[in-house]
């Protein structure tokens, strides 16, 4: 396999072959990023789940590894879940030079698997005994560390009484006590809890598979928020199989950095189905509407840039983008929209900024001093759209060749186009 099949993304990770869906237990350990993912290696459709595995040293170039969790070896339904690096050996599982890496999976109860070789192979803890069993149907456990209470927390989706999550607490990552429940209709599948800084304080973000989220507080046992309407991390139609779903953040990163990666389900070819979104940095920002999560591509994308061209003070009344060629590129523009009507990209569907409505593809995005910032990552069948430094974030899969367009006269303070190299060059 050359990774050059038609429509395969050249800087979005996809498996060499087979089906891919949710990212699982993304984590960082000793200079290596580990991405596990839902995987049916011998099918182009959802089938008996394995945990696939890929590694990277820069969040950009990925090397697929042997399967991490195999249903012929590891018991239970190996559906989505999370994982942590047990740097303090709280679990007492350490044996050898490596810190234990624990991952959590399972339906109708949580099963623990652990690695003692840096995250490449896993053993089953206690014969597959369920360490936490929420009421009702349940799945998708995610574990997080709370430095304030000095305890581990686990959030698990369950349908007991309707959509919501059960929280559990632990000091050793192996024995869990029910702590509380948070119910919300929008809180369906693949929940995630992230501790995020802003202005010297920390807030907690609870989000679902769709990217819908609340911002609130965590007291060590319960999540509380005064929000009544969720916001969305990715402002598109997000559902299982869409261009964005089931995002998780990498655990064990240094400092307060939050890097998130999701599943894009609409991309496929002759030997694979599905890919990962391009990783983004998540941050909190104060806006006129309150606190919001904003997203920008990880800066490591810079290692792929080649043949960069920049124009300043450029006026256009038609868009044959200057010097644009190829199907993998990054475009950055600062646009004066005071005389513009609409501009954007056709996939063939249109992703456009409407200057009259002040909206980027239906999402409010106000000009600042009459200008907006737009950033596009175009990767064959994948498109990531960022507006005003991450205020807007949208991900799409598409077929065909993207075409840029303008309605009305457009003035660009600046336009930069980076052609992007393939991450699969070494795999050819």
TrEMBL record:
<dbReference type="GO" id="GO:0004575">
    <property type="term" value="F:sucrose alpha-glucosidase activity"/>
</dbReference>
<dbReference type="InterPro" id="IPR023296">
    <property type="entry name" value="Glyco_hydro_beta-prop_sf"/>
</dbReference>
<keyword id="KW-0378">Hydrolase</keyword>
<dbReference type="GO" id="GO:0005737">
    <property type="term" value="C:cytoplasm"/>
</dbReference>
<keyword id="KW-0326">Glycosidase</keyword>
<dbReference type="InterPro" id="IPR013320">
    <property type="entry name" value="ConA-like_dom_sf"/>
</dbReference>
<dbReference type="InterPro" id="IPR018053">
    <property type="entry name" value="Glyco_hydro_32_AS"/>
</dbReference>
<dbReference type="InterPro" id="IPR013148">
    <property type="entry name" value="Glyco_hydro_32_N"/>
</dbReference>
<dbReference type="InterPro" id="IPR001362">
    <property type="entry name" value="Glyco_hydro_32"/>
</dbReference>
<dbReference type="GO" id="GO:0005987">
    <property type="term" value="P:sucrose catabolic process"/>
</dbReference>
<protein>
    <recommendedName>
        <fullName>Glycosyl hydrolase family 32 N-terminal domain-containing protein</fullName>
    </recommendedName>
</protein>
<comment type="similarity">
    <text>Belongs to the glycosyl hydrolase 32 family.</text>
</comment>
<feature type="domain" description="Glycosyl hydrolase family 32 N-terminal">
    <location>
        <begin position="12"/>
        <end position="289"/>
    </location>
</feature>
<dbReference type="Pfam" id="PF00251">
    <property type="entry name" value="Glyco_hydro_32N"/>
</dbReference>
